[in-house]
Design a protein that fits this description.
Elements (H helix, E strand, L loop, with lengths): L1 E3 L2 E2 L2 H9 L4 E7 L7 H16 L5 H12 L6 E8 L15 E8 L8 E7 L13 H12 L4 E5 L5 E4 L3 E5 L5 E4 L7 H9 L2 E4 L3 H5 L3 E6 L3 E8 L2 E2 L5 H11 L7
Parallel strand pairs: 6-7, 6-13, 10-11
Antiparallel strand pairs: 1-2, 1-5, 3-4, 4-5, 7-8, 9-10, 9-12, 12-13, 13-14
């Protein structure tokens, strides 16, 4: 299922997204017809639309396009809303001023997925505060990590600090059982925000060495919830911890909203 402004999408509609690749999006997991953090996802789309396109976004219109896209879909699933201008031109991107709403749906796995092994990679995303469609760098690092025998990449900035994963935020549990979120330029994830609203935590800089010395580490995003990290590079990490269990329970207990 794919629609553009509520109508079936055509190949021509997608050419600008494929070839020029400028836009932004949010992905939302749907369980039993409800989305955790729906209001935060709409806030993200509104903020990013202003940043990327200099335009306002009607989130009621977004929701009106999401609802029929979910009709008859097996759940759980993930609905992605991408905001881009099909008329954008590579030579004159400043002329693009009429962003459209692309809605796509894919199946979602069970939560939580198995623990993942991450390889540290020097990398910083462009405009990290925006969930934009420019995924080349993130997917290139993921591919490099997988070719090296890992599941995904953990980004390390030029300052030597841990920031985030390929398409997920990272959190840690220190030796005192405190949840620690790295202070760095990252995409502020909705799942992370929901957890931060409901749990005691600290936000501080985390070096790679400090990350490897934590009692546990985990990844978060809308598709996976809270997923344990089994290793960072060649350092093994515990995948079972009481605080990890509490974080998962807290997240799953958050009531979803109907789109």
């Amino acid at each position: 299922m794919a629609t553009l402004n509520g109508k079936p999408v055509t190949t021509d509609d997608l050419l600008a997204l494929a070839l020029v690749n400028i836009g932004h999006f949010t992905s939302m997991r749907v369980d039993d017809g409800r989305i955790r953090g729906l209001a935060l996802h709409m806030e993200r789309l509104t903020k990013d639309c202003k940043t990327v396109w200099g335009a306002d976004l009607d989130t009621e219109r977004v929701r009106a396009y999401v609802r029929p896209a979910l009709d008859g879909q097996a759940q759980p699933c993930v609905v992605r809303v991408t905001i881009y201008d099909p008329q954008v031109d590579m030579g004159h991107p400043a002329h693009a001023a009429d962003p459209s709403i692309l809605v796509t749906v894919r199946s979602a796995g069970t939560m939580p997925p198995p623990p993942l092994r991450a390889m540290s990679v020097p990398y910083e995303r462009d405009l990290p505060e925006v969930k934009h469609v420019g995924l080349f760098g993130a997917l290139h690092t993921r591919r490099a990590a997988q070719l090296a025998g890992y599941d995904d990449a953990l980004f390390i900035g030029r300052d030597g600090l841990v920031s985030e994963g390929g398409t997920w935020n990272v959190g840690f549990i220190d030796q005192n059982g405190t949840v620690v979120w790295p202070q760095a330029p990252v995409l502020p994830g909705v799942t992370t925000a929901l957890l931060q609203q409901r749990t005691e935590h600290q936000t501080t800089t985390v070096t790679l060495e400090q990350a490897k010395g934590m009692a546990a580490a985990f990844a978060t995003n809308t598709s996976i919830g809270v997923r344990a990290l089994a290793a960072i590079d060649d350092t093994q990490l515990p995948t079972e911890h009481p605080v990890l269990d509490q974080l998962r329970e807290t997240y799953l207990a958050i009531p979803g909203e109907k789109p």
